[in-house]
Design goal:
heterodimer; A: eleven-stranded mixed beta sheet; B: mainly alpha; 3 helices; flat
């Protein structure tokens, strides 16, 4: 067999289990693909060829035995350089693994590289990386989205079998949408953040990015769970709602308002009517405070950032603060200002109150409906350089995703079409806290009746 | 409309321990004003009866026993330090004699 790197995680697991090919062959094909494409795509900050021996595990019963995974460079990896795509950590080598990485390694997965992102995950295009932008495999002149753009591009271009990303305001879902892959932003606290280079601690989540929804579910089920090292982590306590006769999906009218591209709206509505034909009910719902989500997000998040970034003092690890990229400086200063004497109530407290109203809007929706469906991004991938000189315009990229992080909800992004120019369009399925199992079920069902997720870019 | 003087920008940068060039003071100053003006619309939301939200899943009181567990060795903990002395991080003096 050849081109084993093109397999889904499910197919790769089965192939190795049934001895159709070896993990070594799978790794070889993956590294050949990386060699072939990295000059064009630049999905990786660090490629780990030759280090796989260290991670290799015996035991045929391991669920991910010999599977090549790519890890976003904000997750600590023992003895593998972890830069957060910032020059300030260019030489940082963590002496320990993030818990999610450790769990996946123990399940048999092999780290093949660390993927590029916006520095410290601050951004929506991967252009803020200290190591240069990643290219979108569907159009090399376009951004792959961000901040987990390297992970999305690597999965989309078959440079790995699956990848890890992080999502603080859309950073798994928006690049998944721009690159036509699937990705889960888990419920806040569903996966441990121990070993994640913290950005905004009341928002940050770590999640899987894969070629199918089913692949994301396999990875999520290994990653998830309470971790004594992360006090915010939890096993979740959601009761199974599987026995309901009728599932109702809410369509927030604000997700289909002016400012969302028509092609995007049409693709998501088409997905909705297809689901309607398959027995799901639909209802229009309201998110009356959605227009305040981005303002609230860009007060609270930079505030938490300014606190989290204080650790970068050049003493224990990394370089001095003058190596910070522009967007890092900008967010640290914005947060410092919002938290400073005389402004705390005006900005931080006010935004935290609005955050409460936004979460309540979602809770009210989930009293009426089981899921919410909408676009991930107002438009398909944009050109490299198109928005990079206007930070505010880039912040507006999070309009349909940041609200989910403000509320701590889980959300699954998955492909649902293409624009006339051939760029991917993605949709997201939102559910109540800890409803991942039900969300996956709906997403998997959609992928049995559509084949958007099977299309591959011509690079 | 938010406004920031040059002195305020320098003050914020100093609080954040970030050194800015003249060019950066002007660039970031303008961008921060743009962003702050944009977030000003939060003031149009009535929130006098709303409790601020920071704990989004409602978990509280996560305790553990105070027992020594597995941790990094001293060597590992110091492995990325620029400068060490007798197993300590070595830094410039903070106080003058």
């Amino acid at each position: 067999m050849s081109d084993l790197n093109k397999l889904s995680l499910k197919e790769a697991i089965l192939g190795i289990k049934e001895n159709k090919f070896s993990s070594k062959e799978l790794l070889n094909d993956t590294f050949s693909r990386i060699k072939e494409l990295e000059g064009k795509i630049k999905a990786f900050v660090t490629v780990c060829e030759g280090q796989e021996g260290e991670d290799g595990k015996d035991g045929n019963d391991l669920p991910l035995l010999g599977i090549p995974m790519a890890v976003k460079d904000v997750l600590s990896t023992k003895n593998i350089r972890t830069t957060a795509s910032s020059k300030i950590l260019e030489n940082y080598i963590p002496p320990y693994d993030a818990i999610v990485v450790k769990k996946l390694k123990e399940a048999g997965a092999i780290i093949i590289g660390k993927t590029n992102c916006d520095a410290f995950a601050f951004g929506a295009s991967t252009e803020n990386s200290g190591f240069g932008p990643t290219k979108n495999p569907w159009d090399l002149e376009c951004v792959p989205g961000g901040s987990s753009g390297g992970s999305a591009a690597a999965v989309s271009a078959d440079e790995c079998i699956f990848a890890l990303g992080t999502d603080t305001g859309g950073s798994i879902r928006q690049p998944a949408s721009f690159c036509s892959i699937s990705g889960l932003k888990p419920t806040y606290g569903a996966c441990s953040r121990y070993g994640l280079l913290a950005m905004s601690s009341s928002f940050d989540t770590v999640g899987p990015m894969g070629k199918t929804v089913e692949d994301c579910e396999i990875v999520f089920n290994i990653m998830k769970g309470k971790d004594p090292k992360d006090g915010t982590s939890s096993d979740g306590d959601r009761k199974d709602k599987d026995n309901k006769d009728k599932i109702t999906i809410g369509l927030p009218k604000e997700f289909f308002a002016d400012g969302i591209d028509n092609e995007v709206k049409e693709a998501v509505m088409k997905a909705a009517s297809l689901l309607g034909e398959n027995g799901f009910d639909f209802e229009e719902v309201d998110l009356p405070h959605l227009e305040f989500a981005i303002p609230a997000y860009y007060i609270i998040v930079p505030s938490e950032i300014s606190s989290n970034m204080a650790r970068y003092d050049g003493i224990r690890f990394g370089y001095q603060r003058e190596k910070f990229e522009d967007e890092v400086k900008r967010r640290v200063m914005l947060g410092t200002y919002a938290l400073s004497a005389g402004y705390y109530d005006q900005y931080y407290t006010k935004a935290s109150k609005v955050r409460k109203l936004i979460q309540e809007d979602f809770f009210k929706c989930f009293d009426k409906v089981d899921f919410i469906l909408g676009p991930v991004s107002p438009h398909a991938a944009f050109k490299i350089g198109e928005k990079s000189n206007n930070p505010l315009e880039m912040y507006l990229e999070d309009i349909l995703t940041g609200c989910v992080n403000l509320s701590g909800l889980p959300a699954l992004a998955l492909p649902c079409g293409f624009t006339k120019e051939g760029l991917p369009i993605g949709m997201q399925i939102l559910g109540p806290h800890f409803s991942e199992e039900q969300i996956f079920k709906l997403g998997k069902m959609y992928q049995t009746i559509t084949d958007w997720h099977k299309r591959k870019p011509i690079i | 409309m938010a406004e920031l003087t040059k002195e305020e920008i320098i003050h914020i940068a100093r609080l954040a321990n970030i050194t800015l060039s003249e060019e950066e003071i002007e660039k970031f100053g303008k961008q921060l004003v743009d962003i702050l003006s944009f977030v000003d619309n939060l003031n149009s939301v009535e929130t006098s009866d709303v409790e601020p939200l920071a704990n989004i899943t409602g978990k509280k009181n996560i305790f553990r026993e105070d027992i020594v567990g597995e941790s990094l060795s001293q060597e590992e903990a110091l492995s990325n330090a620029k400068s060490t002395h007798n197993s300590f991080f070595k830094i410039k003096a903070v106080f003058e004699r």
